[in-house]
Specification:
The protein has 403 residues and is α/β, with parallel strands linked by helices. It is built from 15 helices and 19 strands. Helix 4 crosses helix 6 and helix 10 packs across helix 15. 43% of the residues are buried. The chain binds cytidine-5'-monophosphate. The site of cytidine-5'-monophosphate (C5P) has 13 residues, from helix 12 and strand 16.
Length: 403
Amino acid sequence: MLKNRKITVAVTGGIAAYKACEVVRGLVKLGADVRVAMTENATRFVGPVTFEALSGHPVATTEWEHTPEGAMPHIELNLHADLLLVVPATANILAKAARGIADDLVSALILAHRSKVAFVPAMNCHMWRNPATQRNVEDLKRDGAHFIGPDSGFQACGDTGEGRMTEPADILDLLPGLFSEKPLSGRRVLMTVGPTYEPIDDVRGITNRSSGRQGFALARAARDLGADVTVVAGPVTVKRPAGVRIVPVTTAREMLGAVEGELDRSPYDLFIGVAAVADWRVADRLEGKWKKDAGLPQLRLVENPDILAAVGHRAGGPVTIGFAAEASDLLENAYAKLEKKGAAMIVANVARDALASDTNRVLVVTDGEVDEIGPADKDEVARKILYHAVDLLEEEYGPEDDL
Ligand code: C5P
């Protein structure tokens, strides 16, 4: 989504300017064409040479020098940009942007922008909370500006609170959403992701090789398409998506409890069961760490609850999508699962190709049709699966406009 995008990064004068280096580096790595402009104050925190090296282009720091093309920088830098990303955005630049003040290069750049503009605020929590800043943010949003963050946490000034700049990796995760259409806007999506872990004793357990990658790719895609996403996640180590609520659990029974708790609290439009739920758990969990010299433990396994089926057969429940990782007979098994799980759609894949891999190939099976997706990277597979979900939701609830 960011490949070949033309992005102008405007850096303003806050300590978080050093993190903008990582944003620029990440954007370039993702294939974006990046130009950088800096306020004079920003150059006190990070030298333009750093951004020049990272972006591969000269950095504009003043409106008093023409670009190599002979144009005025605040016009030239906007002319070709798909996005103007102000990172970090200080309280000062938000105030100037909200009022249309253009007294330096970056503020002029913002006033002259003709594409999308996104602000990534970073400031002391009291400055952020100040009604003046909040008013400016509201005004800018009303004018169509996008905001990423701020997050809460420890701040450079020693305070802890809201105003901390969103981490570069999360900014890069959230940016593609700015370029996406929003057919899932207003929809609430609940998902299960990752493996579950069923303890044998305090240190050993039964689990599987699910990484959570396909599930998180689906969560990202749903978020980018405009949905409000909650993920009940088993123990996973891959990077979590930003802008998605995560409910961490360990066992299948905890996963079921968390899913039912969510559904009891408020209605969801769509449930996607991606988790590789362990089929069995140990009936009588051993205390402490079972000693090797105590002999072989006698483990009795019992079946875990089927979370997808529980949601699929729930009266008045959400539209339900399940996954089926099979070794063979993909289609037959998928049809059987539609019925057994009460699902509107089953996404079937070959287990060996899907687990712990970056790519996937799937069959999307509904009552009426079968569509093959991939082999493709899991993000692309996720997006295409969700377009099928958009169709299902329209069939169930009517078009998005009726929300
Ligand atoms: O029955 P099977 O494990 O093949 O079904 C896979 C689908 O069912 C996946 O969507 C998975 O998330 C879901 N599932 C579940 N609870 C289980 C087993 C599977 O939600 N106990």
